[in-house]
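Quiz preparation item.
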C-alpha cells in the first residue's frame, strides 16, 4: 500500500510539473488578441523604398519589428504565413501633418443645465508678454486618443503613421509622431515632440487687442523666439552660479519651447503662395529656429529659391479648386486658374530642384482621397517612386524617425501595407495593414444586392443590404 501511495504521489507531482511548464511556456498565440507574435509574407513583391523592389521575396515580422527581408529567408516554425503571390508589400503610409488621433473637444452633454453665465472678459492682450493665442504646452502625445474614429479610417486607407498636432491659435501646441494602433493611448506615441506648428493668421475675437494684423503676428512670434533664447541663456547662467543673481522669471511658453528645441523639434511655417513662400524663407533666416515650410502648393514658382535655403517642405495634397458654393457668375482671375492647374506640378518642381519634401493630407477629409490626390502629382510629372517616398521615408527623415520608420528594413518597426497591385492604381485593393506588427485585415464594405425582377411583387417590400460607409469626418 505504501509503494502504491508513493507511486501515485510521484505521478501527481509529475503531472503538476508538466501543467506548470505548459502554463509558463510562451504561447505563439499570446500576441494581438490571440494572433501569433511572428508573421511571414511569402513570395510577394516587396517595395522597401530604401532600395529597389524585390520580386518573389519574403518579409518576416517578429514581436512588432521586421526580423528579416529578402529571398529565401528562414521562416519561424510558429509564424503565421501569408501567401504573397500577386501581392505587393509597401512601408506603411505616413501623413506628415494632421490632427488625426486628437479628438475634437466634446460638446456639452444633453440634459445639462443651460449655458453658464459668462464671467468677466479677459482684458485684451497689449503685447507679446501676454502670450495671446498661445497653448504651446498642449501636446499631441498627451491628447492622443484611440477614441478618434479617424484612426481606423486612415489605417484602412493604408496609413500607419501620422505627425499629429493640436489646432487653434498662433502657437496651438506640439506635434508628435503617432502610430495608428494600440491598446492604450500611450501605445500610439512613437516620438514627441517633433514639431511646433505655427499659424500666422491674427486670432479672431480679441476685441482689438494685440495682435490684430499679420505684421503684429509676425512681430509677436519673433519676440517669442527672442524671449525663449534669452530665458534659456539666463537660466543656464543662474543654474551655474545662483548666488548674488536675481532668479530669472518663469514663463511656461519659454520653458516648453526651450525643452522642445532641445529635443530637436521643428517649427512648421505656413506658406502656400509664392509671396508667402518667399516670406517664409526670410522668416526662417531671421528667427534662427529649425524650420519646415508647410503648404507649398505654389512651389512651382520658387522651388530653386527653397532649394538654396535647404529647407524641407510639406506639400498640402488638398489641391486648390473652385468653391462649391461660389457665385456661378463670378469669373476667376487668370492667376487663380493657373494656380489650380499648376499646383499638382509643385512636387515635381521641388524634386527637380533637390528639395526634400513630404505629403500631408491638409483639408482632405476622406483618407481614400489622399492617394488620388498624390496620383495627380504623378500625372503632373512626379515619378511614382518619388510620390511613394513622399508618403513613407521622406517624412520619417524630416521628423527624425527614419531609424525606425519609413521603409522596409531589418530591425525597423513593422508598419506595412499589403495590396494586390500598384498602390496608386484606383483599382488596387489594400488587403492587410500591419501597425507595430499588429495585423489588420481590410474588408471592403458590402455592396447593395440587386434583387431579381421576379422577386418584386405588388405590395411586397424589397430588402437590400446597406453599404457601410467609413467614419471619415474630420
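Solution:
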Amino acid at each position: 500500500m505504501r509503494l502504491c501511495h508513493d507511486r501515485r504521489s510521484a505521478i501527481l507531482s509529475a503531472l503538476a510539473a508538466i501543467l506548470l511548464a505548459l502554463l509558463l511556456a510562451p504561447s505563439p498565440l499570446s500576441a494581438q488578441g490571440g494572433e501569433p507574435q511572428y508573421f511571414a509574407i511569402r513570395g510577394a513583391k516587396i517595395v522597401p523604398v530604401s532600395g529597389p523592389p524585390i520580386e518573389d521575396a519574403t518579409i518576416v515580422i517578429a514581436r512588432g519589428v521586421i526580423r528579416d527581408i529578402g529571398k529565401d529567408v528562414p521562416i519561424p516554425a510558429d509564424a503565421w504565413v501569408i501567401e504573397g503571390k500577386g501581392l505587393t508589400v509597401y512601408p506603411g503610409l505616413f501623413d506628415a501633418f494632421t490632427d488625426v488621433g486628437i479628438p475634437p473637444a466634446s460638446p456639452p452633454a444633453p440634459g445639462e443645465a443651460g449655458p453658464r453665465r459668462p464671467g468677466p472678459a479677459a482684458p485684451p492682450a497689449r503685447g507679446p508678454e501676454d502670450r495671446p493665442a498661445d497653448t504651446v504646452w498642449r501636446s499631441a502625445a498627451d491628447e492622443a486618443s484611440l477614441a478618434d474614429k479617424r484612426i481606423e479610417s486612415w489605417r484602412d486607407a493604408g496609413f500607419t503613421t501620422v505627425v499629429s498636432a493640436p489646432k487653434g491659435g498662433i502657437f496651438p501646441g506640439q506635434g508628435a509622431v503617432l502610430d495608428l494602433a494600440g491598446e492604450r493611448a500611450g501605445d500610439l506615441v512613437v516620438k514627441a515632440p517633433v514639431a511646433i506648428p505655427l499659424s500666422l493668421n491674427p486670432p479672431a475675437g480679441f476685441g482689438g487687442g494685440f495682435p490684430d494684423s499679420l505684421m503684429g503676428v509676425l512681430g509677436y512670434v519673433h519676440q517669442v523666439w527672442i524671449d525663449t533664447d534669452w530665458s534659456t541663456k539666463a537660466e543656464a547662467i543662474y543654474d551655474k552660479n545662483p548666488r548674488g543673481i536675481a532668479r530669472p522669471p518663469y514663463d511656461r511658453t519659454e520653458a516648453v519651447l526651450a525643452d522642445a528645441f532641445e529635443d530637436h523639434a521643428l517649427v512648421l511655417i505656413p506658406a502656400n503662395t509664392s509671396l508667402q513662400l518667399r516670406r517664409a524663407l526670410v522668416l526662417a533666416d531671421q528667427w534662427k529656429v529649425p524650420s519646415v515650410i508647410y503648404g507649398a502648393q505654389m512651389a512651382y514658382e520658387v522651388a530653386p529659391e527653397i532649394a538654396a535655403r535647404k529647407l524641407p517642405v510639406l506639400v498640402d495634397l488638398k489641391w486648390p479648386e473652385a468653391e462649391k458654393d461660389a457665385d456661378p457668375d463670378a469669373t476667376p482671375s487668370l492667376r487663380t486658374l493657373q494656380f489650380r492647374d499648376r499646383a499638382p506640378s509643385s512636387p515635381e518642381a521641388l524634386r527637380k530642384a533637390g528639395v526634400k519634401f513630404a505629403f500631408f493630407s491638409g483639408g482632405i477629409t476622406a483618407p481614400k482621397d489622399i492617394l488620388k490626390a498624390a496620383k495627380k502629382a504623378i500625372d503632373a510629372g512626379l515619378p511614382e517612386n518619388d510620390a511613394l517616398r513622399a508618403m513613407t521615408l521622406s517624412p520619417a527623415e524630416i521628423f527624425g524617425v527614419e531609424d525606425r520608420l519609413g521603409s522596409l528594413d531589418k530591425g525597423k518597426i513593422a508598419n506595412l501595407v499589403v495590396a494586390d497591385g500598384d498602390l496608386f492604381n484606383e483599382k488596387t485593393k489594400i488587403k492587410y495593414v500591419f501597425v507595430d506588427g499588429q495585423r489588420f485585415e481590410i474588408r471592403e464594405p458590402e455592396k447593395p444586392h440587386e434583387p431579381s425582377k421576379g422577386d418584386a411583387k405588388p405590395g411586397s417590400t424589397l430588402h437590400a443590404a446597406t453599404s457601410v460607409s467609413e467614419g471619415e469626418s474630420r
